[in-house]
Amino acid sequence: MSEKTNPQECKLCSAEAPEDSESIWEKHRAVVVVASTVLFGLALAIEYVTKNTLYGHAIFLGVILFSGRGIIEAAFRSLIHGRLDVNFLMTVAAFGAFTIGQADEGAAVMYLFSLAEFLEDTASDKVRGSIAGLLKLSPSSATVRVDGEEVEKHIHDVAVGDVAVVRPGQRIPVDGIVVRGSSSVNQALITGESLPIDKEEGSEVFAGSINEEGFIEVKTTSPSTETVISKVVKLVQQAQSERSPTESFVERFAKYYSPLVVAGAIAVALVPPIVLAASFTTWFYRALILLVVSCPCALTISTPVSMASALTAASRNGVLVKGGRYLESLARVKIFVFDKTGTLTIGKPKVADVVSFSSSPNEVLQLAASLESMSEHPIARAIVEKSKEEKLMIMPVRKFISIRGRGVEGTVGEREIVMGNQEIFQKAPVNVLDKLEELQVQGKTTVLLGVGNEIVGLIALKDMVKEDAATALEELKARGVQPAIISGDNQATTAALAKEIGVDHYHAELLPDEKLEEVADLRKRYGTVAMVGDGVNDAPALAKANVGIAMGVLGSDVSIETADISLMRDELSKIPYILDLSRNTVRVIKQNITASILVKAAFALLAIPGLVTLALAVGVGDMGLSLAVILNAMRLGLVKVR
């Protein structure tokens, strides 16, 4: 049984719409290139083997018109709109060469330029194609359970609340919650992580990820157009459409560059014949070469193709960058500012120490867990969780009372138990106070346990540091970047964390507006600042930083939309990766721009004395250089997370 929908109405299906809108000519460009190659070879044979100039020139003209159809049309459009672009320059060069009797050179110009465009598009499509590939990897249909039967539905028709059936080896078609079964799921497509993640009832899963082992049923929580993978694709597409400062400069430069080149070529063609009575044909030919080598193709594509390659590589590794300007800014960052709780730490307290003054540690933990089992406070949950790990029995509690801001009390068995901070216990022995101070210096939160009038023990809790925190920050320092911590937590806890992970610069007990002021001060001192937080609680500071980075935003609409850079998973190892990628991107852009300017300038200088042919100018100075720029940019996809 199946249900159908109109593919044109589905945003997932419409990912192929641009391809469908291409003309027949554009769809068969490969055929045009092959046919042009055959015609060009035939013309050369007739011209130089059979010495039949008339037929040779006629076929060369056919090569110009056939291979350059799209280029000639674009040249006329640019002329009508008053913009002298690269297509205009090439069209003038090709027909100009043909007019002065250099038919083979004119055909070579148009043929090689059209071949260059074809190869550039093919190479660039590999960068752009990975985005469409993300969408295509998300299934276009889903098997949905309806009234006890399995119904095949187009993904566009799957509604929120529908239950999708996913068998081993299949891609999960929807974002949703597992309601039946368990399995390991490979979600590298979305998060960039290499290892499968275990999923069971209640676990969240995402469209496009692969169900590796078990049979699961997934209740849909998002429409097909609002899945995480759809949001990722949309954001990357938006990012690629934005312009970085370097891109904007190159575009403005190219806008004025082409008219200047045309003016220079006209001067080369007319001044020597008029002033020096030199051969017009010779200097007109050299002017055509100048037109060709001065085409800013490689220069104009050097930045956008590099940015597109980098943004796509980042998305494949679970990092969403809102635009090229943020990637470019990140390369200049001298200091990374980290929020503490939830960014460098897990954000959930865990029991670190159980100290006994009279009872055994297990008895202290058991009594504390029994009393705290009546509370929903994060500290209470941590103590109860620790008792479960130690397999201690929770005892019933009577007369439970919560003392707001201080602690709890109740009766466990026949004993009156009190648990809380130091304020509850008016007089604490010296040995207890010494132990409290020792643990607090270590950045731990302490709660005392009293039975009757006696303090029998204490429990110290700590928000545990993430496993990769110290390594990630060490890697940043190795790259010449200073890490810093700003936190709303107390001074002792923040200082202990900073010492543990090797951070010298930290500020504690900051309110949100004070965090913002601290970031503003760091911008004055360091120039460019990146702030790493959760994307919501630290919104003012993230906004004030030059680059705001949100951690672990998988499935979070707000965090994805507010941050400049979003890490899909809560992995600090992605911070050095995105820094490396940004620096490599800026380095590749500089390489491409420098090579474009130097090669073009060299060929232009050689063109004036006639040391370069028209075909060589196109083949090396234009086509070869453009392809080199694209291939260099595609290297950015090789930058990996360590």
Written overview of the protein:
By secondary structure, this protein is an alpha/beta fold. Among the domains are: 84 residues, Calcium-transporting ATPase, cytoplasmic transduction domain A (Distorted Sandwich), CATH 2.70.150.10; 154 residues, Rossmann fold, CATH 3.40.50; 119 residues, Calcium-transporting ATPase, cytoplasmic domain N, CATH 3.40.1110.10. 53% of the residues lie in helices and 18% in strands. The chain contains 24 helices and 23 strands. It has a seven-stranded mixed β-sheet, sandwiched between helices. The chain has a six-stranded antiparallel β-sheet with strand order 13-18-17-16-15-14, with helices on both faces. Strands 4-10-5-8 form a four-stranded antiparallel β-sheet, with no helix packed on it. The protein is elongated.
Give a quick rundown of the structure.
This protein is of the alpha/beta class.
Summarize this structure as a short list of keywords or feature phrases.
Rossmann fold, Calcium-transporting ATPase, cytoplasmic domain N, alpha/beta, 23 strands, seven-stranded mixed sheet, disordered N terminus, 642 residues, six-stranded antiparallel sheet, Calcium-transporting ATPase, cytoplasmic transduction domain A
CATH topology of the domain at 309-345 and 466-582: Rossmann fold
Subunit arrangement of the protein:
single chain
Roughly what fraction of the amino acids lie in strands? Answer: 15-25%
The CATH architecture of the domain at 309-345 and 466-582 would be 3-Layer(aba) Sandwich
Please tell me what the overall shape is: elongated
Instruction: Just give the CATH class of the domain at 309-345 and 466-582.
Output: Alpha Beta
> How large, in whole angstroms, is the Cα Rg?
34 Å
Structural class: alpha/beta
The proportion of residues forming helix, as a percent range, comes to 40-55%
Topology, number of strands: 23
Strand order of the largest sheet: 11-23-22-21-12-19-20
